[in-house]
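Worked example

This section walks through a single chain of length 256. The input is the sequence exactly as stored; nothing has been trimmed or padded.
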Amino acid sequence: MKKYIGLLTFFFLVSCSAKKAVVAETVANDKLTAEKIIENHYTNKLNFKTLYIKSSVSYRDPNQSQNVTAEIKIKKDEIILVSIRILGITMAKALITPEKVQYYEKLNSSYFDGNYSALSKLLGADLDFQKVQNLLLGNAFDNLKTGSYNFTLEENRYKLETVSKSGISKTFYLSGNNYLIDREEISQPALERMLQVIYPARKSAEEFNLPSGIAIEANQKSEKTTININYNSITMNEELSFPYSVPNSYERIFIN
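Given that input, the structure is written out below as tokens.
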């Protein structure tokens, strides 16, 4: 479980104009098919070159709690840089590309440099750059176009549940107003494990529909970890730099 919580910490502490959102019914339509709902979800896809997010983050698990600030820089489909600061001092950085994941943290003077396979094994699901980017943008974690889903309505939301025999269940809740993701869940009942991601609200600007923050809750048996990220400011299409350099004295760690 410590590895599982550590991975969550990595994701969320490590955690031009855009298309306007689809104009949808104010009430979820039970006559739609799952395929049409998914099509409408992707019509909301953001069109941007770079994204710069300043956020505040609170983290809590059974053993500790922490409040930090996080600076998130995204060059669409190419690179993500996350810088974690406490009282203005950079304590950790993560550099994420389609090919690899790198991060370092000052507390233990350690760093990781590797591909997604080890992290995917810890999470219990395939992980890649696109999925990390999707989480930060408020999009569905998976590519919904490649899956098979059961569709129901729940509290004016479209509920899509995976049809899978892998032991991993995934559920996506899309708003009945605009087909954007309100909540998504990944569960492994055999391991008594569930990860829930909630987008409490969306930014009000008409030109884009990014989340105003992310609320994450991870449960395994009797242990619970919560991470709340508030997007304090968001700017698009600025010229951004992505500096990342590991101090020479840091020790490399390996995830088996």
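What to look for: Residues 150 and 161 are 5 Å apart (CA to CA).
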